Amino acid sequence: MDINELRYKAMHLPLKPGVYIMKNRNDEIIYIGKAKALKNRVSQYFGSDRNHPEKVRQMVANVDHFDYIICSTEFEALVLECSLIKQHKPKYNILLKDDKGYSYIRISNDKWRRISFEMNMADDGAKYLGPYMSAWYAKNAVDEAKKIFRLPSCNKVFPRDIGKGRPCLNYYIKQCSAPCAGKISFEDYNESIESAMTFLRSGDSDSIKFMTEKMNEAAENLEFELAAKFRDRINAVKKISEKQNVVENKIKEQDAISVMTENNDACVAVIRFRDGRLFDKEDFLIKNVGEDPDIPSMRAEFIQQYYTIRDRIPPVIALDGEAEDMELLTQWLSEKRGLSVRFSIPQKGENMRIIEMSRENAAERLAQSHGHLGHELTALDELAKLLRLSKAPRWIESYDISHHAGSDNVAGMVVFKDGRPYKKSYRRFEIKGFAGQDDYGSMNEVMERRIKEYYKNPDSGLGFGQLPDLILLDGGKGQVSAVRPVLEKYGLDIPLFGMVKDNHHRTRAITDEGHEIAIQSKRRAFTLVSSIQDEVHRFAIGYHRQKHSKRSFSSSLTEIEGIGNTRAKALMTTFKSLKRIKEAEIEELLGVKGMTLPAAQAVYDHFHTEE
User: Fold this and answer.
1) Are residues 45 and 147 in the same domain?
2) Which of the listed residues 528, 548, 568 is the one where a domain comes to its end?
3) CA distances (Å), 266 to each of 158, 261, 355, in order?
4) Are 57 and 205 members of one domain?
5) What is the predicted pLDDT for the residue at 406?
6) Mind giving me the DSSP string for 520-570?
7) Of the candidates 564, 543, 473, 547, which has an alpha carbon nearest to the alpha carbon of residue 512?
8) Number of domains in the chain
């Protein structure tokens, strides 16, 4: 069935709630969706694809025919949609793999026992603690126990490897007792294992209580070294607890969900709290969502899938933005839970910190999948929110003017790609339109030349061959006002801002033509913008100094009889420095384009007479 037939069929659907089922030519279900009015929703797919995200365009291109099921209400359609997606797992729906299983903490049965995290329980004679529903929780518990009780985390085997090497760094930072180097006796090591097992079984408070009793008992028996050991362990447990309390939530049970996108992919991170403390962390990488995905729709689809494969639903779900059909989702989740469920979109306070933590986790996972660092992605995301951009600016261009009292006017352009300097695309400009000092006129000229270069080879990639997602000028409202007409002249809707400095030449704010935007409170965005401003200033002033130095050298050469600006420039281009010109023989000087024997002799005599 071609697109016109599909559109015709869609236009004859009823204006009733229901579920639509898209199929390919092999009659395979490739997408399932719900609609408040089937006709309106389905016909949108087969109209103009100009506003469709890439993933939707791909799906529509594979549709051969579709079916539909009429429902009494939109809520009934939502419930049916969730059930059908779980049953058929269509290619173009967000599908989350339910890889949640039980995990365990294993204590080996060797003489020198070792504690480890395991996903499965084996019949190997070892002791297993668990099962734990959260693999993240169990793994972190093992890591904490090893640090507190100074247990080895290496692969060495004891007693085989005792005395065969020096202690590693963990020993010196007091995170290992170094049995490999004979720094601890078997008895003390065994006691540490027992204490670690008590900590893992009982948790912080009971472990502290047990160790406090041991510490007091040792002190009464004048075993001060042993008492000090228990004291240090108690402090270590308290320190770990304080770290956890940083993310302690006033709401006893809550999930926090955030979405990050980059390079056609998305990552959704979920942080789960139980009893007011971090209980679990999950992240889901979703491929091929398109360059500009519909995030509210993605959130809604994720929530449907996630709570279809998770039995426990909290009373509060915090989101980092709006989700489609939130009222319907609230009703569906409340019905599944048997108690009220509500969504929140925090803007400040403790819950906002939890959402930021969730976003950092999503950014980190997404960045790892693309081979860079998560903090760069979160900085770009924070900057986008601060400047109210539609998406994170992956390609940022920044410009600065440099001169000396109006002479040697130059400009530098630097590029930050995915939050990092991208030096392949740096460019330098020599101001040609006028002489004297005019920073606004210089900025206008530079942007005009930059845009013209783009249109010579549009979308070719590096340097001028790509338009930026954001332009940052080193300067205030005047620079922005000088450049804005150039963008308007070419019909370019590129976000444009100035970077304002304080009296100490440090980044203070971002400005457009209307008002300033304070950025100091946004740590990641502030660091990124400061780095961009410092880099473009360094690049522009470096070019200015180079040009000024060459001009100074050329000026000294023009003092020689027979050497004008053209010959001075040719000499500097060939020899690069006055030192090399001074050391050159007459034959070498004659080899420079435009030089005559009298001119070469004059240059040679000038430097050698000075000697």
Assistant:
1) no
2) 548
3) 45, 4, 17
4) no
5) 52
6) TTSHHHHHHHHHHHHHHHHHHHHHHHHHHHHHHHHHHHTTSTT--HHHHHH
7) 473
8) 5
Structure tokens, 29: 């279900």
* Of 50-54, 319-323, 340-344, 549-553, minimum mean pLDDT range: 549-553
Could you give the 3-state DSSP secondary structure of residue 14? Answer: coil
Distance CA 32, CA 67 (A): 10
Position 100 scores a pLDDT of 63
- Contact yes or no for 138/120 (Cβ under 8 A): no
Give the 3-state DSSP-derived string for 258-277, with helices as H, strands as E and coil as C.
Answer: EEEEECCEEEEEEEEEECCE
Residue 577 belongs to domain spanning: 558-610
CB distance 469 to 495 below 8 Å = yes
Q: What is the pLDDT of residues 457-489, one digit of tens each?
A: 887 777 788 899 999 998 888 899 999 999 999
Residue pair 413/426 in contact (Cβ under 8 Å)? The answer is yes
Beta bridge partners of 316: 254, 342
Please give the DSSP secondary-structure letter assigned to residue 479.
H
Nearest to 114 by CA among 98, 102, 126, 124: 126
Within-domain flag for 10: yes
pLDDT at 220 over 60: yes
Same-domain pairing of 483 and 528: yes
pTM: 0.62
Query: Between residues 99 and 310, which one has the greater pLDDT?
Result: 310
> Which range, of 110-114, 159-163, 499-503, averages the lowest pLDDT?
499-503
Residue partners of 72: CB distance under 8 A and separation at least 6: 17
E strand or H helix at 130 = strand 127-132
User: Looking at residue 585, which CATH number applies to its domain?
Assistant: 1.10.150.20
Structure tokens at 60: 């529509």
Q: How far apart are CA 337 and CA 281, in angstroms?
A: 21
Q: Which of residues 309, 339, 371 is at a domain's end?
A: 371
**521 with 576, same domain?**
no
Residue 303 token pair: 């929530």
